Amino acid sequence: MSEPQSPVARLEQERATVTRRLRELTADFDAVVAASRDSNADDEHDPEGATIAFERSQTGALIKQARGTLAEIDAALDRVGSGAYGTCESCGGPIGEGRLEARPTARTCIGCASTPTR
């Protein structure tokens, strides 16, 4: 069995994966935009598939999600640096190791995460 990764190693690995995905999505988005500029096709009424506007919107949403994930990872790395990583932001108790392994960017313990907000 291999030793578990440190929180920083897990976060850095996740950051590299998301950054690579963001680059791919940005390239896809740029290609869709370029294709729409170079075409005079009536894609809004094309029965063959999704519209360019739909593809652009879908890719834009995925880019926004990836940027949000990067922000979460950076915030978690900041918590590691300040010594607050692994401490619940709601109750101040520890966040379980299993939760941090499954979700390294977790800000709350499982108890606080499953409590509905009012």
Describe this entry's structure for a reader.
The protein is mostly helical. It folds into two domains: 1-85; 86-118, no CATH class. It is built from four helices and no strands. It has helices at residues 7-37, 52-82, 97-102, 110-113. Helix 1 (7-37) packs antiparallel against helix 2. The radius of gyration is 20 Å and the shape is elongated. The model has no long low-confidence stretch (mean pLDDT 87). Keywords: Metal-binding, Zinc, Zinc-finger. InterPro entries: DnaK_N, Znf_DskA_TraR, Znf_DskA_TraR_CS. Residues 83-114 form the Zinc finger DksA/TraR C4-type domain. This is RNA polymerase-binding protein DksA. It comes from Nocardioides massiliensis.
Q: Care to give the gist of this entry?
A:
With 118 residues, the chain is mainly α. The protein has helices at 7-37, 52-82, 97-102, 110-113. Helix 1 runs antiparallel to helix 2 (52-82).
Shape: elongated
- Main beta-sheet strand count, sense and barrel state: none
Q: Structural class given helices, strands, pairing? A: mainly alpha
Q: Which consecutive residue ranges, at least 5 long each, have pLDDT under 50?
A: none
- Distance from N terminus to C terminus (CA atoms, Å) equals 43 Å
Pfam family, one: zf-dskA_traR
InterPro entries: DnaK_N, Znf_DskA_TraR, Znf_DskA_TraR_CS
Protein name: RNA polymerase-binding protein DksA
Keywords: Metal-binding, Zinc, Zinc-finger
